Amino acid sequence: MDSVAVFQEENPSLENYWRSVVLFGNNVASYKFALAKTLLELIEQDKTHITLEELAKPYSKHLCEHIAVSSKQATSRTSSFLDACRQYNEGTISSDNLIQVTKSKGFNNVLDAFHHVNGADLPVKFFEKTNINGTAGIVLTDDVYRLGEIKFEKNLTHEAEARWNLVETAWNLGVSVNTLSIKYDEKSDILFVEDNKIRRRNITSVRAALNGYQKGKCFYCFDDINVTNDSTNSCDVDHFIPHTLQQYTNANLDGVWNLVLSCEKCNRGDDGKFAKVPALKYLERLSKRNDFLISSHHPLRETLMNQTGRTEAERHLFLQSMYKKAKEYLIHTWETTEVQQAIF
What we know:
About 45% of the residues lie in helices and about 15% in strands.
């Protein structure tokens, strides 16, 4: 069973089917991310049927905002719809013109492809296409409204934005995904890259980028975590292999492979992990979380493989050697009680 199927099957909740769309769907254009953010906005409105013209307004807004920062939003060389978004940003076409182009050309593939992940359609639908009296649109399903009822549901918007930022960065740098290196700045909690001229480009919050792969749970106790600082249970970014060992190894302990999201209690509470080595059972969990990352499309996938190994056997040996070295230096191990059922 591949990692995408495992991701869905171990905890087949609505939010994890949603995360499959955002994290594991094909990346040939950014339309999926714009639609995801639009749907999350629409569930806050008391309206079920949305015409394409109504859908076009928030959908094109998200794309125009991203184009203003990163012009390339697809792998194809031309797109009359994206050109219209650029023209709107430049002030050469009106808002009404943009909406009409979006309505006629902006939804050609994304509505049909949205629920298609890893070669098959999901067993749930967050919307259905419809045509009422010749007016095309979508009908929001009960499943998408249930997303608005989950704990820390705003995390889903942050995750979609983070994923979008990662993908468009790879496109705009115009480099091979095999050579793209994403780095972590511990002080700012930001993922960044350096281009060929060694200029730093901040990409996104590491918390928003990693949260979906942990299904919105603390890596250690599986309590619900929040990726923002303005609410309860805001998460920490923890180095699985404690960062204090950096001076004794050539491996990059700031690498994506070694970063997990933890609740504050597990990371630095009264009985927290701090600089202890996690118990061996957590090493298998880290390997599985990294497999989820590798099963997604670039750029986090390629970064992690560059850091730990191109094959599964190489990656297992790498984690085992790092764990052994950590035990040799730090001696003591740590574990905690799970407050919710293990989901990965």
